[in-house]
Amino acid sequence: MKQTSLAVTTVADQAADALRRKIMSGELAEGCSLRQDALAAEFGISRIPLREALVQLEGEGLVRIVAHKGAVVAGLSIDEISELFMLRSVLEPLLLKKSAPKLTPDDYARLDAILADYKVELLAQHTTRWGELNTRLHDVLLSRADQPRTAAIVATLLQQTDRYTRMQLSLSADSIRQAQQEHEELVGLCRAGDVRGAASLLKRHIEHASRDLERFILSTRRAPGQAA
């Protein structure tokens, strides 16, 4: 019995991962209906683990399950998105102040590699990796804070805003360049030991992204909270 339960859970997790990638990449847009029969056939699984995957993604804020209607890709209003970024702008600088003094040479090697990858993907216009690289850079910068509960909250906030950030970055060359410049400055300030300056820049960086994203979403929606 335990083996069967574990197998079902593993299949559900795999289905959740596949759906999460589709949502994050924009392949499944907000408001898109998630037909369980079609998805189960696509993944080659039964509807039981698929339902578990949808419930998991609902808990992450990526899917909304409506009684008698089924599951849809969840969308966020402008106010909800602004709140998520506001929370990031408060929590991430706090973590950075704890983490930056303890970043190691290996951490800086990873950060430099991410910045180099980011530059390559920018020149190649490979938009699908921009959100991933952005999240990885923030993760490394904050990784030495030793504040697991706050870090878990931030990880959830990054996940919930990632698909919107990808959309905004993919259509705004200026935002990409600004993000790249600010990332390079962040790493430089941490490397120089200017923790206060790095935390201040990180807060402005997140606030810039929030404002750009709000403008972008308003320009692509008929009205706040409605998908265009």
UniProtKB/TrEMBL annotation:
Q: Which residues form the HTH gntR-type domain?
A: 9-76
What SMART domains does this protein's entry cite?
A: FCD, HTH_GNTR
Q: Which Gene3D superfamilies match?
A: GntR ligand-binding domain-like, Winged helix-like DNA-binding domain superfamily/Winged helix DNA-binding domain
Which InterPro entries does the protein's record reference? Answer: GntR_C, TF_FadR/GntR_C, Tscrpt_reg_HTH_GntR, WH-like_DNA-bd_sf, WH_DNA-bd_sf
**What keywords is this UniProt entry annotated with?**
DNA-binding, Transcription, Transcription regulation
Q: Which residues form a coiled coil?
A: none
Give GO terms: molecular function aspect only. DNA binding; DNA-binding transcription factor activity
Annotated protein name in UniProt = Transcriptional regulator NanR
